[in-house]
Specification:
Helix content is 32%, strand content 27%. The strands form two sheets. Strands 6-7-8-3-9-10 form a six-stranded mixed β-sheet, with helices on both faces. A hairpin with a 2-residue loop joins strand 4 and strand 5. Helix 3 packs parallel to helix 5, helix 4 crosses helix 5 and helix 5 packs parallel to helix 6. The protein starts with 13 loop residues before the first strand and ends in a 5-residue tail after the last strand.
């Protein structure tokens, strides 16, 4: 890898250069991230770990274009997105990033199928193809026959799988997962993580996972550890789970 973070002459999917983040509360400033440098290649499955307050969630928010850094540059597919407007960042999120959160974030009054179709609706797609795309995503997470049910009619593990289907429905090249097993027991959590691996391997999506649980993080192929706002290690996970 050369000084510009390229590998074999290819531009990495993600490159961070000296990313810093400072939050201000009144007259007090908190330096949450301190000169973060990292690259993520297309098709990687990267886990980010760190204790509470380490800066891992702030790093995830920047990677997901949910927040802008105080300093430094964020290159996404070679484009510096760190200085874009809120509307421009929203467009990137809509087209390139799917999100899976700890709390599922499903709309209770909508059916499972309608929940999965939401990103397509926001993208302006209202054709019959939208339903086919949503059903295809549900099939990938083994919930093809649950489309007519509502969130309160399925288990927590199934709800998280619906959230995964929603995240991939528009073929976003990047999936961000923030503590996706945090509300699940170990059995259902392991079941959910197998689908992240499946999406990474079969669809080629780049997975970026934040977790405090080493067992969950080990589903990735690379483990980045954050402490006190800096990256202290980046290690390949040889076998995964």
């Amino acid at each position: 890898m050369d000084d510009y973070g390229t590998k074999n002459g290819n531009i990495p999917l993600i490159r961070l250069e000296n990313i810093g983040m400072i939050y201000k509360i009144g007259d007090i400033s908190y330096e949450v991230l301190k000169g973060i440098n990292m690259t993520i290649e297309k098709g990687e499955f990267v886990s980010i770990m760190g204790a509470s307050g380490s800066g891992k969630s702030t790093l995830m928010n920047i990677l997901g274009c949910l927040d802008k850094p105080t300093s430094g540059s964020y290159f996404l597919e070679g484009r510096d997105v760190s200085g874009l407007t809120s509307d421009e960042l929203a467009e990137i999120r809509n087209k390139k990033i799917g999100f899976v959160f700890q709390g599922f974030n499903l709309i209770q009054r909508l059916s499972i199928l309608e929940n999965v179709m939401l990103p397509l609706y926001y993208a302006g797609l209202h054709s019959k193809d939208s339903e086919k795309m949503a059903l295809s995503s549900l099939k990938l997470v083994d919930l093809y026959d649950k489309g007519n049910k509502f969130p309160n009619q399925i288990s927590g593990g199934e709800q998280q799988r619906v959230a995964i289907a929603r995240a991939i429905v528009n073929d976003a090249p990047i999936i961000m997962a923030d503590e996706p097993t945090g509300n699940l027991d170990s059995v259902r959590g392991a079941d959910v993580m197998k689908f992240f691996k499946k999406i990474n391997e079969e669809k080629g999506a780049t997975i970026i996972l934040v977790s405090h649980d080493k067992n969950v993080a080990n589903y990735g192929r690379r483990l980045i550890t954050v402490k006190d706002g800096i990256i202290i290690s980046s290690d390949t996970i040889d076998a995964g789970v």
